[in-house]
Structure to design on (227 residues):
C-alpha cells in the first residue's frame, strides 16, 4: 500500500500558529484531505486540496501542497484550545476506492 | 449532510462471543469501509465494500468478516471475539468511482469495543 507519514505529537500555546506536516509516496494522488478527530468521536472532514493546487485557504486553515517533495501541511492560525484533537492526513488516487491515512498527529494546545 | 450511523457507541463482550457491529449510511454511497483505530497505529483498514454483496479485504482482515446485503448497511462480524480485538471501530462511506471528482470519506462516531 501507499505510505503516508505524520509526526505523532505537536504542542503549541494558545494564540500561536500550528503547522502539521504530512508526507506521502503516491505520485498519482488526486485529492489530499485533512481530517480532525476530537476525543471519543469519529473523523470529521476539515479541508482538502486538489493535486493541481499549491495552496488553499479556508478561514484559519491554510493547506500547502508541494507535489515535487510529496509534502502536505496544514497551518492553523491563532490556535485555540478547541483545536486540540488528532489530525489525520489522507490521500487517494483518482478513480480508486481506497483511502490512505497517516497515523495522525495529536495537537495539544496549552492555555 | 451525510449521516453515517454506528449502532453502538460502547460495547462490552466476552471472549469467544460472536459480535456484530452495524453501520448505516443515508447518502446512497456505493463504497463502505470498516477501520480499527489503536493508539499510535492510526487507522487500519479491515474490509471495504464497493457495492452490494461485494467485499474486499483490507490490511488486517484476520478474525473479521463483513456482510453487505443492502446498499445502506455494512456489518462487521467478529466470529469469535478475542481480547486483542478490543479497539475503537470506525465505519465510513464514500461515493463510488462513477461519481467522479471530489469524493471524501464520511465517518460514523465510532464504536468502542471491549472484549473481556
Amino acid at each position: 500500500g501507499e505510505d503516508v507519514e505524520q509526526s505523532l505529537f505537536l504542542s503549541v500555546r494558545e494564540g500561536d500558529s500550528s503547522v502539521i506536516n504530512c508526507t506521502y509516496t503516491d505520485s498519482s494522488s488526486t485529492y489530499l484531505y485533512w481530517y480532525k478527530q476530537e476525543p471519543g468521536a469519529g473523523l470529521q472532514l476539515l479541508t482538502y486540496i486538489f493535486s493541481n493546487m499549491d495552496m488553499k485557504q479556508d478561514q484559519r486553515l491554510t493547506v500547502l501542497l508541494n507535489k515535487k517533495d510529496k509534502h502536505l501541511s496544514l497551518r492553523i492560525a491563532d490556535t485555540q484550545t478547541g483545536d486540540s484533537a488528532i489530525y489525520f492526513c489522507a490521500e487517494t488516487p483518482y478513480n480508486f476506492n481506497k483511502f490512505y491515512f497517516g497515523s495522525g498527529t495529536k495537537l495539544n494546545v496549552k492555555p | 449532510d451525510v449521516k453515517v450511523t454506528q449502532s453502538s457507541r460502547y460495547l462490552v463482550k466476552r471472549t469467544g462471543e460472536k459480535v456484530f457491529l452495524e453501520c448505516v449510511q443515508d447518502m446512497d454511497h456505493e463504497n463502505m469501509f470498516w477501520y480499527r483505530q489503536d493508539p499510535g497505529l492510526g487507522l487500519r483498514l479491515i474490509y471495504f465494500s464497493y457495492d452490494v454483496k461485494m467485499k474486499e479485504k483490507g490490511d488486517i482482515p484476520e478474525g473479521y468478516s463483513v456482510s453487505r446485503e443492502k446498499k445502506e448497511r455494512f456489518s462487521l462480524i467478529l466470529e469469535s471475539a478475542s481480547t486483542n480485538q478490543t479497539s475503537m471501530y470506525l465505519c465510513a462511506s464514500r461515493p463510488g468511482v462513477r461519481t467522479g471528482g471530489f469524493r471524501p470519506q464520511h465517518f460514523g462516531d465510532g464504536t468502542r469495543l471491549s472484549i473481556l
Observations:
- Chain A has a mean pLDDT of 91.
- The longest strand of chain A covers residues 29-37.
